[in-house]
Amino acid sequence: MTLLTKFNHAVDHPNAGRLLLRVLLGGLMLFHGYFKLTHGVSWIVPILAAHHLPSLLAYGAYIGEVVAPLCIIFGLFTRVAALVYAINMVFAVLLIAGANFWNTTDVGAWALETEALYLVGGLVVMLLGAGKYSISKE
């Protein structure tokens, strides 16, 4: 057995990888959700109004940034929660960050790379599912 084969065998833990991805994505989004819980979502209403969308959608931030991330972390309705998480990011990009789509930062990074990581991360969790270490078995 070669050294590479031994290494590959030692690190072949897809369920642990799924758990790590779920905890990372869910945990990081919870910071945004905590901000919404402590400061409210009223600041989102004018942004929605500017796009001719109902103000009730502002409360969707609680679902996309608190409920869905908690479900993702615990592996409860993971695929659906990850889809909601990704849709939340689509709204965030289209309503708030979209103007920076073609921009880069002062260090050359894409201005929307964080949003892209959240969005694609949510889609990856949706496609992979929760794995073995979860509350519900999908």
Pick out its properties.
single chain, mainly alpha, 138 residues
Offer a quick outline of the entry.
This protein has 6 helices and no strands.
Report on this model:
The chain is mostly helical and 138 residues long. Helix content is 66%, strand content 0%. It is built from 6 helices and no strands. It has helices at residues 3-10, 14-39, 45-50, 60-74, 78-97, 113-128. The model has no long low-confidence stretch (mean pLDDT 95).
Largest sheet: none
Helical coverage, percent range: 55-70%
Radius of gyration: 18 Å
Helix and strand element order: HHHHHH
Strand content: under 5%
- Average residue pLDDT: 95
The residue ranges in which pLDDT falls below 50 over 5 or more consecutive positions are none
Structural class given helices, strands, pairing?
Answer: mainly alpha
Gross geometry: globular
| H/I helix tally | 6
Q: How far apart are the first and last residues' alpha carbons, in Å?
A: 35 Å
Task: Please provide the count of β strands.
Answer: 0
